[in-house]
Amino acid sequence: MKAVVYKGPYEVAVEEVDDPKIQDPTDVIVRITSTAICGSDLHMYEGRTDAEPGITFGHENMGIVEEVGSGVTTVKKSDRVVMPFNVACGFCDNCRAGKTGFCLTVNEPGTAGGAYGYVGMGPYPGGQAEMLRVPFADYNCVQLPKGEEHEQDFAMLADIFPTGYHATELAGVQVGETVAVYGAGPVGLMAAYSAQLKGASRVFVVDNVEHRLDLVKDLGAEPINFDNGDAAQQIHDAVQAYGVDRGIDAVGYQATEPSGEEQPAVVLNQLVDTVRHTGGLGIVGLYVPSDPGAPDEHSAKGELLFRIGRFFEKGQSMATGQADVKRYAHKLRDMIIAGRAKPGFVVSQELPLEDAPGAYEKFDNREPGYSKVLLQPGR
Amino acid sequence: MKAVVYKGPYEVAVEEVDDPKIQDPTDVIVRITSTAICGSDLHMYEGRTDAEPGITFGHENMGIVEEVGSGVTTVKKSDRVVMPFNVACGFCDNCRAGKTGFCLTVNEPGTAGGAYGYVGMGPYPGGQAEMLRVPFADYNCVQLPKGEEHEQDFAMLADIFPTGYHATELAGVQVGETVAVYGAGPVGLMAAYSAQLKGASRVFVVDNVEHRLDLVKDLGAEPINFDNGDAAQQIHDAVQAYGVDRGIDAVGYQATEPSGEEQPAVVLNQLVDTVRHTGGLGIVGLYVPSDPGAPDEHSAKGELLFRIGRFFEKGQSMATGQADVKRYAHKLRDMIIAGRAKPGFVVSQELPLEDAPGAYEKFDNREPGYSKVLLQPGR
Amino acid sequence: MKAVVYKGPYEVAVEEVDDPKIQDPTDVIVRITSTAICGSDLHMYEGRTDAEPGITFGHENMGIVEEVGSGVTTVKKSDRVVMPFNVACGFCDNCRAGKTGFCLTVNEPGTAGGAYGYVGMGPYPGGQAEMLRVPFADYNCVQLPKGEEHEQDFAMLADIFPTGYHATELAGVQVGETVAVYGAGPVGLMAAYSAQLKGASRVFVVDNVEHRLDLVKDLGAEPINFDNGDAAQQIHDAVQAYGVDRGIDAVGYQATEPSGEEQPAVVLNQLVDTVRHTGGLGIVGLYVPSDPGAPDEHSAKGELLFRIGRFFEKGQSMATGQADVKRYAHKLRDMIIAGRAKPGFVVSQELPLEDAPGAYEKFDNREPGYSKVLLQPGR
Amino acid sequence: MKAVVYKGPYEVAVEEVDDPKIQDPTDVIVRITSTAICGSDLHMYEGRTDAEPGITFGHENMGIVEEVGSGVTTVKKSDRVVMPFNVACGFCDNCRAGKTGFCLTVNEPGTAGGAYGYVGMGPYPGGQAEMLRVPFADYNCVQLPKGEEHEQDFAMLADIFPTGYHATELAGVQVGETVAVYGAGPVGLMAAYSAQLKGASRVFVVDNVEHRLDLVKDLGAEPINFDNGDAAQQIHDAVQAYGVDRGIDAVGYQATEPSGEEQPAVVLNQLVDTVRHTGGLGIVGLYVPSDPGAPDEHSAKGELLFRIGRFFEKGQSMATGQADVKRYAHKLRDMIIAGRAKPGFVVSQELPLEDAPGAYEKFDNREPGYSKVLLQPGR
User: Where in the sequence is the domain holding B269, given as residue range(s)?
Assistant: First the structure.
């Protein structure tokens, strides 16, 4: 079959690879209909990870079940399904607690969590391909209504819609509360959108890219351009109170100052200022324990100068980690089916698999209009 | 009346001061029977804060109601009461949410939280004195059974028992879980004790002072001496798992390496190692936004090198802040009355008020046996 | 001043009564601008309670502060405020737990909860009058932006908006869930509206009055007419699943069969059928321990034939009780200010106080268009 | 192999039956070391259910894994395991929500929940036998330390310890609260014991059998004999307050009056009286939608006269249903391993499998000393 294969820094190719096979009785094989390119794929694409050439990318996958292992109970051939990006077993301590991003079964001992097509996340080829093997299929498939309706919306269930929603859970967003989201990329937009679905009264989104801030306005949220002055101060001025109730980091360690200089802790520390006493911070922007391209030796080890003194004085809390997609995907799917959520609005392109190399290049260059690309192998 | 007055670094005196008076209809005046010296009093005593000479110390107070304002409804003359150290109104947003340590009414606009006898915590003289004015008395008094029973136990309700309990709430301790507490001082012991009351399966307490570690063993918890090797590793060896479920910081920014050198972030970063993926950290050891005696310029601003990369990778959460004593004091009182909790075991001395200067000196010198001093003015 | 006074069954009059006065230092006096007639006022109006002639009605009150007691801290003369219908102290065990509908201070020993202008709810005259005394004013006033904006919306904060919201809390409504509400009166509509604000995927509302069901459709919820067949079955057919996730009773003990016959347990038992295994029931429709007008001797004592066998087999839960308005009113107010909620859509009339007798009569006769009447004394 | 087979009312026999076999790749076969007789087995034994002769009893099973299907990942041959009585899949909506007693996969469409050896609970033979087939073995086995230690304690993890614990979860027991348990049988004792583990301040247990009440006293809980007067009143007298915070029904529909007469709703209604305003009721005693032996036509359909009027007035909540054993078993196991819980104290006999017929007869006759029988096939 054809698949998007990593060839080395800034290079992917669509190549013939072996078809996936049922390896365990609990596997299914899915024929991919839509598979998205994720911002986190770019970390590998740019060569800033340990990913070796030869890996097939793709962790945001949906499609039609083609083959079913003998130990699978509820998934049937020709079912339409979307797969949470985290591979998970469903029965370990973390999965049972709903922390499916930290499955203790699917990766090496001592680590937690698996994913398709991602370095360090276990032996699971990605789904930017014609076919995908899905382990523990009863758990890792989310059933969808048959047909072609909502294809873009459902594709967002594999990662960014639940990841944005997860951010609001980590931050503890409640009905009537005010929320600030740092970062107006796809995940930041999904976080703002999720906060609105949960009944937030006001949602601010901070960025300095105008076309992203336009999308914020379209959502009915309030854009804050940090080129226009301190973001925390702008938000304080708007809410006329001790700060917002909840803050979300959808940027991570590659945060930059208005000058453009990388300053890995700047968003975290801005959040401490932005959020009121006793408020909550939800961190889904990535922080890593090892970053070879970091600006200094401490950042290289994932150690950042965090304003813990002020954080403690304000009695804040902070929760982190990659999204437990499975925990949210079913109910968010129901929102899409009921017409109450349309996360597909962030999709900017639907392209055949063959167009992956160009799409990666344009997405990596942040070309205007390349916000969220769906590859559609059957197209 | 007589009161313990701060005279300057390393000096307190018992002096005559004005009797407190009913200032607002919602006040009461309490005649103090027991008032404890707290580790946090030493910050002022040592001159490491902005406290000006003349302030009366004492935020762990209990006694008998002597006079009642005309707007007080449920507190009566001669009631026996203990006062949570945080002064709180009961009706602001934070108080209604149970975050009584962050009351928005009792201190300057822009700040949150008040306390008796503490610099920066509002205009409330301390209770290391014969009498104490208690504002918003219906809210700030916790009723006790009349008589003299459980005096030591009830005195612990003003601060350290609820503070230790708060640590277990911040960390999210659940029945059957394993817990590591850093620091075997009074608050650390109360945290370990609270974890046991909540049904933790195993509780580890880390310190390097032998007589404190003996108390840990007496509690039925497991002492870890960090002079014997990396504490996190010792705990990992003991639990034979990914780490403990919950971690508690009862040390704060004056943490030291085994060498004795101050390293403000060492406990925080050890906790990240000690706790399993998706586990929770509860921070009650103090971190401050400004520390003139800090070892470096960043610590002086409360900015510490925190291992956020690993923290995020493990999907951990962290909650902080001074205890919301009022939230816990009533149920913990009921545990004492029912004979199910005896937090008074940490009390090492009961002394007349006049002995305060010597007690401060010995406590500050960490003289063996001076772990928790109760001053008893009426004695 | 003028007030709406109960004269006996089916009779109220607007009469001169004594002006309210500051009785306790913690009181304020409010000049009423809007005060609504509630369905529960009709119980007294119809003579189906122990209410004695002479009582002033009115528990849904808002207005402008006119006079302030010496023990009040945050409420100022000329503040615009709305008063939760439950009178509460803010400091008893129930208030501190957010159960402000069950305050242990404001009513007779052994009872719990107080209200303005309601039989058995303590010595608090109602606000269908020019002025109202508000006890524990720092707690019982909810501050509003000055001016006249959102008058109808804010008036709904005294009772029915929080009561509808409370129903969704009791039932445990979560994002993406399906909800069935029995009863399309003002409270049922507010429950459906609240479920939507919280992100329910589908909301069904059951009634058999066409103009009420039209309002359901206007909300974007799904009307179910129980004259068209078993409501539970209609809902099962619509969701094609084990039933809805959550069910709400906004009818209470005066429930009727399609025939029109009173059958006090019919809604409760329908909910057991309508809701899936492990789902939650939120009961805000009133059930009473004593009903002289009941159809049989058991109902007269508030004992109903409840399908506990099926309820248990399905592992359902049920939570009940009058709303703890204070717990919700602040955040719901913020939703109104932010333009995210407009509960005033249920208001059908704004009338001068003098029109109260006619309004009561028409409302009691269920005259079309008399869904929610606001009396406006200053008008 | 040998198994305990139901022959008809009041008759079981130990007979040869077919050995269980791996039917699905996700199955394991367990050689039983301990299997308990449960009070709920007696419903079938007495012929008060639809159970047909030929069924093998036994849903409280533990043993050693003998054979492992090809789709099983973490369970290995010779592992020592205990099986929660509910058969569950781990991946359906209810299992993922922790409601494993209501699995939507393992029984007929339209029903929820499965169990070993129980009528109506799916095609799963019981474990009062030498061997047991365990479906979805990665989910349905709880791993135990190898060896023979804690055999009695671990055997209680299959049902009654988690069921007692579940009762405290349904009731919402928190640290410092007071609890009343109706019924001092094995489940009631486990509920009282669990309440203590969770830090309840006082626990009352109501029964009228002296030797059961002695066990209550041994636990450090407070026995209430309802032959000595109204149980609710006795408890009110003891707590001197509005009632206990939480109430537990460990009796169910076969409740009796002091006279000995069956009155199915008596415990439910007593709980409404016993528990304070806003308190919680946890119902694990069984209520059934169909009871052929009921005292009247309504009870026969599971419709009982419930004091809903008073329940509502007090703003109470009630949660019900069979225990979700899997949710609790792991942490309770850890409590046993850590020496913090010893639920095996309720075991009264350890007998070879062959003694089952006599044990059933004596247990059914409530012979003194036959409180909890463990059958041990390998013995």
Answer: 160-320
